[in-house]
Amino acid sequence: MTLASSTPSSSSSSGAAFAALGLSAPLVRALCDEGYATPTPIQTRAIPPALAGRDILGCAQTGTGKTAAFVLPLLHHLATGKRTGLVRGLVVTPTRELAAQIGERATAYGKHLQAAGGTPIRHAVIFGGVGQGKQETELSRRPDLLIATPGRMLDLVEQRLLRLDGVVHFVLDEADRMLDMGFIHDVRRILAKLPRERQTLFFSATMAPPIVELASAMVRDPVRVSVTPQATTAETVTHGVYFVERAQKRGQLESILKEEGDGRVIVFTRTKHGANRLAEQLVRSGFMAAAIHGNKSQGARERALGGFREGTLRVLVATDLAARGIDVDGVALVVNYELPNVPESYVHRIGRTGRAGATGRAISLCDREEREFLRDIERLLRERVPVLGEVPASAFPAEVEPARGPRPQGQHGRSGPRGGQGGRGQGGSSGAGRDAGRGGGRHGGGRGGSGGGPRPQGGHRSAEPRASGGASTGGAGSGGASSSSSASSSSASSSSSTTTQGQRRVRSFRPRSR
Asked: Which ranges of 293-370 would DSSP assign to H, the alpha helix?
């Protein structure tokens, strides 16, 4: 959104613009406090029908003001409706960061609102990867609005700590990412627990056929809102690609970072292991960098994002799973260190820059094995990605890559040099990492994932996947690591050449974390 100036006339005009959409005076006052000048296109088109109780089918990329487009009418309805003691408004979103971000917006927009009886509108945010004790306390206060990730919410429902039969207004945010992450079955379970008579607001950055099929089962006679063409890059972002050998990628990345100066940069990898490794290498090269992905604790993720926002960290190395929760203004550059093996993820990645009307750049580093991924992206965009140049093999000292095993096949999309990971990770306690542990999905199997062994034992819910050893690859969990270890030990008793083969065999079966 565009920030208003500090002049009274500007504030007055911004209030009038939002009031004209039908929003209540306390909401308009909060928006003026936030400095919002004019509604964005998605807000102008979605808020009036949402206030009228219509279902919404919205196609909008991140950075378009979409969160306010559903949070504002939700708060308006909750303030004017009768309090029942049950959750009346529900927002389901795929990642912890997105849930926390939506919760922050609900606090900011609703600070002047009061429900019937003069009490403030209460909301709660719940997600996996953390203990649920505080979340149980929040639910005991009977919030009007609940913002949640699917796995933890269903855990609480199964424990009879949460009821969904009072929901009147339901929002499914980032529906395409839900499918990518393997949450489709959980979404259907949630739908089965909601009242049939409800308002549904359905938002997605892309509208591929599976998304349309899901939407058709959820919305009734919806108002269709689209502020950007499907599968296009944001108009404010210029993007291009360098062709470069894999061993030259880090040298090219460091060269780009030096040219960029002090601007904030997000670098994307396909896997969690790759993100950790690259962040460590960048730190050794003198860059202020940190990795963020699903295996990081919530505290570590919040510290990394906080440092990135405050400027103490200049480079954030991220996976697609964490990307949707990175809502930071002023990101000057996005670098695809590894191209995504699901082409829609390209649009989501580069949408981290050029937000709120600002301009941004995106650069991709494409090696020979990723040329097919690039062609998939260009087919989706229906345009060629501009070529910025071809990096000579002698441009930088070659980086020695560890030996790679055979490529695991993803459930959807293409398998990549390190693609295809997913699954449920190791067994553990209920809800500890259910949302994060499902991060394969279209990228490589999601809950069931292909290319793995039997479901691991050790608990009725999977714990947060671990970055080393028994990570969540195709459901193999710690079992894969165990058989690999035994293969290595068997090889060690033979000749040295056999040992080398055994080590390679261990690598080919060793799970890699996303």
From this structure: 298-310, 320-323, 344-350
Per-residue pLDDT tens over the stretch 155-207: 999 999 999 999 999 999 989 888 877 888 999 999 999 999 999 999 988 78
Distance CA 117, CA 32 (A): 25
Residue 397 sits at φ, ψ, to 5 deg, of -60, 130
What DSSP string runs through 416-477?
-TT----S--SEESTTSSTTGGG--GGGT-TTT-SS--SPPPS-SEEPPPPSSSS--STT-H
Residue 83 Cα distances to 14, 25, 88, 110, 118, angstroms: 30, 20, 8, 16, 11
Q: Low-confidence residues of the chain, pLDDT below 50?
A: 1-12, 229, 403-433, 436-514
Cβ-contact 339, 417 below 8 angstroms: no
E strand or H helix that includes residue 51: helix 41-51
Contact 322, 95 (CB under 8 A): yes
Q: By the 8 A CB rule, do 19 and 25 touch?
A: yes
Chain centre to alpha carbon of residue 340: 14
Question: Torsion angle, CA of 52/53/55/59, rounded to 10 degrees?
Answer: 50
- Residue 144's pLDDT is what? 95
Whether the pTM exceeds 0.85: the reply is no
Helices (H), 261-316: 272-284, 298-310
d(CA 468, CA 513): 7
Helix-helix angle 66-80:41-51, to 10 degrees: 20
Separation of alpha carbons 464 and 428, rounded Å: 8
SS3 142: coil
Summarised one tens digit per residue, pLDDT across range 38-48 is 898 999 999 99
Q: How high is the pLDDT of residue 107?
A: 94
Rounded Cα distance, 436 and 453, in Å: 20
Contacts of 161 (CB under 8 A, 6+ apart): 136, 139
Residue 247 amino acid letter: A
CA distance 205 to 216: 16
The string of pLDDT tens digits covering residues 439-469 is 444 444 444 443 444 444 444 443 333 333 3
* Radius of gyration of the chain measured on its C-alpha atoms: 23
Q: Do strands 427-428 and 461-462 pair parallel, antiparallel, or not at all (unpaired)?
A: antiparallel
